[in-house]
Amino acid sequence: MATVHVIATGGTIAGTTSETGTVPTESGHDLLEAYPESVERVDVDIELEQLTQTPSSELAFDHLVELAARVRAVASDVDGVVILHGTDTIEETAYYLDLVLDVNSPVVCTGAQRPHDAVSPDGPANVRGALDTASHEHIKSGSYVFFNDRLHAARPVTKRHSSNLTAYDSGNYGPVAERTPEGLWFYRRPESLSATIPVRDVTATVEIVATSTDTTGSQIVAAVDRGVDGLVVDGLGLGNVPGAVADAIRTAIDDGVDVVITTRCRDGIVSPVYGADGGAAVLEEAGAIFASNLSAQKARIKLLAALSARPDRPIRPLFDAARYDGHGYVRSTTGCGDSR
What we know:
27% helix
């Protein structure tokens, strides 16, 4: 019989209604006791611990570092790990774990859009699916989000709806698997899509700067003055920014701050095509780093991990879109194209 270690952190799945709104009140033990059908129908031994009892919007990197340490401590003795987590930042936690862990057990994050005391909570089905996934013989490693009968790889998954049960998807990459009445139906090979960054603590500081029509560079200037180690600029389209933002980016890079460019578009990549004052080609020439199709929040996670691991290590290769294993660019040597 497979063994799954469950780590509870709070979130809506543990939430009940109070005078001030929904707050996480139910422990992991309380939840599993309340979900007998979800637990008993999965043929696994369950180990359980409560790491924190916190809405995911209030989690700090200290929590993520501790969570990764707990997974490392138990992974070699179990078949999989399930993390009960709030939905607001579950994709960030899953991606952080995908980046920093090098373990031979899958890590499956799940939660709920509806609180525990709702008329029809979605927590029980999500927990059952996560336990099925973490104990599945075909899934040996990697970090995932299981939600609403779909299994998503940590790198592409994102929350696209604030309240609907179908909140999560993986864009053009698509889900790894889907839960059916007969079990998991796999669309893709279950594996990590992230090169491991061997870091045990987050010591760097990275901020995200949003852009829109006529955005100035004041946020970037202020962040550099505060002494940040890195910046993620969430650009427009293929990674373009207003001219004033481009000027501030150049200054930041000259001051030794690593600047990563993402796009606020939900799908597609950033690419140095445009050469106007704030065009991505100009940013590349200035030394900015492009995050391909990573969202701003995940690019920040990656930059934090990279800067914390080895501050003197070149950052650019970690964001190279040609280095992905399993997706992304495949550079051709035959002249027949460079992508698949």
